[in-house]
Structures are given as C-alpha cells and as structure tokens.
Design brief:
The chain is an alpha/beta fold. The chain has one domain: 3-Layer(aba) Sandwich (Rossmann fold), CATH 3.40.50.300. Helix content is 40%, strand content 13%. The chain is built from eight helices and five strands. Strands 2-3-1-4-5 form a five-stranded parallel beta sheet, with helices on both faces. The protein starts with 20 loop residues before the first helix and ends in a 7-residue tail after the last helix. The model has no long low-confidence stretch (mean pLDDT 94). The structure holds adenosine-5'-diphosphate (ADP). The site of adenosine-5'-diphosphate has 17 residues, from helix 2 and helix 8. The site of adenosine-5'-diphosphate (ADP) has 17 residues, from helix 2 and helix 8. Pfam families: APS_kinase. InterPro entries: APS, APS_kinase_dom, P-loop_NTPase. One of its GO terms (molecular function) is adenylylsulfate kinase activity. Catalyzes the synthesis of activated sulfate.
Amino acid sequence: MAEDIPLRSNVIQWQKTTLNRTDHARLMGQKPAVLWFTGLSASGKSTIANLVQVRLHAAGIKTFLLDGDNLRHGLSSDLGFSASDRVENMRRVSEVARLMSDAGLIVLVAFISPFGSEREAARARMADGEFIEIFVDTSFEECARRDPKGLYRRALAGELSNFTGLDSPYEAPSSPDIHLKTALTGAEALADEVVDHLKNRGLVPHG
Ligand code: ADP
C-alpha cells in the first residue's frame, strides 16, 4: 500500500515563481522591513506600533500590523501560553511577517516574544538586514500599575498561569536595534524616534 506523502520540506520542493520579492518591492516603491516590538504585556508595544503605522501610512508607505493578541483569535487560536506553544506562536508569526515582507510591505509585529533565542530565530527567517528589533522597555511594576486589560491583577491574584514576568520569563534584548524607554518618554515621541531610525536606514523618505 502506498504511504501517505508527509507534508515535510524534504518531500515538497520549492515551486519557483516568475516574480520575486524584489519585483514586489519595486512595484510598491519601498524597501520591506519587519519592525519587531518586544516587551512585557502592557509595556506599550501595540500603542507605539499603532502610532508608527499611522505615521508610515501618512507618508504613503504600505504597512501591516500583526498584533500578538489579535493573532491569538485566529492564526494561533489553538495555542496556549506554555513554553512550547509560545515557540510555535513565534514561528507562525515570524513566517507570516516574512511572507508579508516578501510581498513588499513594512510589517510591524507587536508581540511579547519573551525568549531571546526565538527572536533570533525570527531574525534569521527574515531577509538580511530586514529584521529590526525594538525593545519596549517598561518595568514589571509599571506594567502592573497600568494594567489596561486587568491581566496583572488577575495574574497576581493567581488566576492566570504562565504570565510573562511573573511565572514565565522575559529575556530582555541585550542589544536591540531600537531601545524605547517608556518611563521617560511618551508614546508619541517614541513613535517619532522609531520613524527617525527608519529614515536613517533609508526606509522612510526624509522630510
Ligand atoms: P502591549 O501591546 O505592550 O501589551 P499596550 O500598548 O496594549 O501594551 O498598553 C500599554 C498601555 O500603557 C496603554 O494604556 C498606553 O496608553 C500606556 N502608556 C503609558 N505611557 C506609555 C508610553 N510612554 N508608551 C506606550 N504606552 C504607554
């Protein structure tokens, strides 16, 4: 009896297409990139990523925002918060980000992404130089004080397990491409900082 063909990369060969990522980016008139916001829950990733996206959009740049919480409603609705599920979640999100950057977009990813090794794996999945790690640096205490979704209150009351910073680790980036300190600066100014960085990299036109 014939064996089922396993869906594995050693069996399925890469199907070549006529158009490639360079063609897509040229038609878009921009350079793709993946802006990867990492930090604790409530550190400000979504808030700042959203403000950056609005600025890029206003400058005529085509973007897409992948928000960790939103993706858990669909793409990753089958995953929980164990270490292995978090690793799988990272793999899926980074693959989607890669595909969107292949399509020529600037992709913003707002995602706790607590493990350094997984962020490095995400960097390795992207085209050379296109992964920009943005550390949204907010202390656990400050995040717990903000608590916009009431998650810290529940986690500290013992109602949630595997909560990042409490009973699940957060490995802060040691040399992020951009380091945003939210205790010192407001979200709007931090979004400007990100856009300035992108201008210096030639991803956003000056002016
Ligand atoms: P995350 O996406 O990291 O879980 P959110 O952006 O959803 O975080 O929530 C961060 C909260 O902190 C928001 O209520 C935001 O208004 C608030 N906040 C206060 N100061 C800042 C700042 N400097 N940068 C970003 N967010 C801030």
